[in-house]
Amino acid sequence: MKKMRIEGRDLVDLVLSWSLEEVLNVDLYKRQVGKIPLEFESTVDYFKSFLPPLIEETHAALLSSIRTLGRAPVVEISYIMPMAEFELPNDLFYKVRLSGLSTDEPSTQLIPKDLIVLTDKRPNRVDGFNISSEPYIVAMVCKADPDRPNDVIILASKPLFLEDVQRSKNEKKASLFGIYMTNITTNVRIWNSLHLGLKGGNLDLISRVLQRNSEDEGVCIPCRLEESDGLVPHRFLKLNPSQENAILSCLDVRRCHHENTIKMIWGPPGTGKTKTTSVMLFTLLNAKCRTLTCTPTNVSVLEVASRVVQLVSRSLTIGKYGFGDVLLFGNGERMKIKDRRDLVDFFIDERVDKLYPCFMPFYGWKATIDSMIRLLEDPQGHYHQYLENLERVNNVKSKDTDSVFKRKGNDHKKNRNENIAEQVVSDSRDEEKRPTSFQEYLPNRFSDLRRDLELVFSCLCTHLPTTLLLSQAATCMYETIDLVKDATILAVPDGVSGEVLKSVLVTTGSDRFTSEQVTVEDDYLKLLRLIPEIFTLPSMSNRHLIKELCFGHACLLFSTASCSARLYTELPIQLLVIDEAAQLKECETAIPLLLPGIQHSILIGDEKQLPAMVESQIALESGFGRSLFERVSILGHKKYLLNIQYRMHRSISIFPNKEFYGTQIQDAPTVKQRSYTKQYLPGKMYGPYSFINIPYGEEQYGEGRSLKNNVEVAVVLDIIANLLQVSERTKTRINVGVISPYKAQVFAIQQKIQETCSGDAGGLFSLKVRSVDGFQGGEEDIIIVSTVRSNGIGRVGFLADRRRTNVLLTRARFCLWILGDEATLVNSKSLWRNLIHDAKERDCFHNSEEDKSLAQAIASAKIEFLQLNRPLNNSKWKVCFSDEFKKHLEEIKSPEIYRKIKSFLERILQGWFPEEESETDNLVSSSQLLKQSKIDDVIRLIWAVDILKQEFHFVQVLKIWDVVTSSDAPEALKRLDLNQMKYTEDEIEKCRARCFRGDIIVPLRWSVEPTNGNSVLCSSDVMETFGSLNLAGETLSAELSSDSRQLLKDEKEEQEIEIDSLSDLLTSKLFL
Questions:
Q1: Which Gene3D superfamilies does the record associate with it (predicted)?
Q2: What is the CATH number of domain 651-862?
Q3: Handedness of CA 888, 894, 896, 899 (dihedral sign)
């Protein structure tokens, strides 16, 4: 039996062979990963140097996914069965059916190369899925049909014992779940390209970058002697000299067929790199040079494709003819291509969907043309065919209608009028139809066919490459559309016998026939007959063939570098362009570089900005994240620098130009104009460039071990609120971006803005809050940078990364305001020391207290911080915590959940019970004592008002029973209600009793021996004393012995110790 083919099988088998101990071993491959050199002796050395770091990076990705399994998507498996290809010990293929999936929820759909954990334990408890103590098997998704997302094929790491899963119909099936871990598609593609390089492949370009090359690569001497093809960018595109020089140099190499060349364009921030790239690609399109453009990410490939499409749209002369030469391909879901109206027509899957009906043999473009010609030449015959088909339909039972006409569709001779049959079939779904008159049928049918032809011709002109659809054919198609756009059809007797009717096309509003109107019909028929003669593409009913046709004849192709592996089986590519090349790992660049036929490549990027993302620290230290662009730059290969920046106010550009680019960048005349200086808020602090010193911040851990600084959050909010007011008051459009290197800070700012500072000033005010990675390539009018670090000793972590800082400082157009702690940043001995010294020298350094609004915001933030971290004492209620609650609380890892639990406990201990908890309809146990409160979308707290027997009294207390997920809450409530709620009716009544003092609820107490009506007392503060309590204006008293007072004092101290213990636990979790 033929084995199922798995790409990168060696790597896949290695991954599936790792034991849990090996996956959790951070240093598993440490000794096997060596430093990747700058120069290589051979292509074999080159490709082999990347293999160990790639394995380590894959290992690190798996380890990272295990640490976050508790938050990973989960699917339930309803069916699993070994496939025919199943064979021990390694080919453990299973067909799996998933339940509960929706095509509207792509986040839960599995795709090929997804790694999943199979387990019989549902991972939805508070502590997530503990892989170290529960049974599991790792598997990889091999195949998944997008149209049937519930059915997938997996390759398991171990055999599954299906007798526990597949049971008889009378027995309850055991559940099986799949937890998403990670996707290794890109790593598998890199693995394949590296091994392809080792086996041979197209090594022409790789060979050019193995070692230092001081030669100015260009056109070889024989090609240089040939006459230039005169290919230059259009003048209307307004390029500056450095941009034009870079483009012309790169375009020139395409003429050479003897040498292989790699050119580099260096595009610092704001220098028009994307414009330069799009103009160059547009020029290559006009030259019919088959070019592949790759980028590292979906976002970046969409951006450059969009810019090229804008240029193409402006240049078209025949409708949308020419769009078919531009093709975008990749993962449509991740690209969110359906949301991109400007690009959706260029995406391969959408294009195939549009073209597929056009090539169908019975109702495609050719069949529709034939039907229109028959209607015009023989309207009576067309009508009689319609009547015959209608009669057949009316004689067939409705339940057999579809099958009858399906059989009719296989009879080519009977279906020469298939379009008519389809019309009848569509009507047959209703009751029996009466035939329309000839006078009604003829114009209606003509209108339908005219609309169909307009759709099919527009589709062909828009989506077919120009090499398949010549301009003459496209012109004819658009002429046919225009010729009868406003025409109607009439039937008149022919001039010979007067008995046979013929059709005549007349223009709207005509009241008599003229020779000109007859000419319209003749011209229309002439065009319809001409189109099949000059457009000879055959009918195709196979989507795959249409897709290959589009891939093979498109001129400009766009994809991520990883997805370019799709082109290994297509027609050769002449030229490779890699945009954002400095963000692409060199080994990933090998995927497109090895494509067959490529002779020249152009790398466009800036190694001074963000590098590629690397998960493993071991791989990072080996140089695995280094780009080809960076390496060949270090080796001294020539780069064409774009040296004029158009984005930043000159006050903003001074420091990064000096610090990162050696003052090689010039400011464009537009950014030097006075109109480019904006003053959105009053004061020098809010000029074009300033560093705002915030010495009172406190860095702390937030979500995911990332840092945040609540004082800087408060400052950002205050500035945003003031800008929003200005925008609303002055009706001024203001675009603001907030950037922080730390995700926890980004999350904290976003959360606070949603709570306190929402609004858009009628669409005039926009705000984006993102991390540095999220702002790569972006720009806004105003950028506010939150540096977060505030420790005074100079510990700044990866904030010292020069490339990240470069991105931070170069996103603003008009204003850049940097928030930070001077002492920490100066003591860091990083470039931040230089930045602060520069700001002081230029009088751009400001202390936050100079602005009264900021000073007040900082003071409020400090108070809030202290209140947030106060212990849970001085409460009005005594509280008891169950062992189950303490156990589950310690298992929670999220500081944000701790904070929410602590906030809820503080409120109820002060007597602020949730409103719904006072309603008996919402009580959740048979005794109506247990309560379930929502902490967030997932977590629920189970608690109750209980009674505690003292020496002389029963006292109401709060009992915190458990903290669970919403899905586990019903079971927990049922268990507690069954095992713990053992109360008499009198005790239940005491637990349910409430004493309101204003808006809060205070605890009640009862004498153990009731006496004449004053036995129920309402406590003002159980934690302070159990004597002299008031109830509804009455003064009540209870005399206690000295022993009893000492007992209550001891109980109060024990209670405070437990409260403080819990508080310490919560606080320690908040600051991990």
A1: P-loop containing nucleotide triphosphate hydrolases
A2: 3.40.50.300
A3: positive
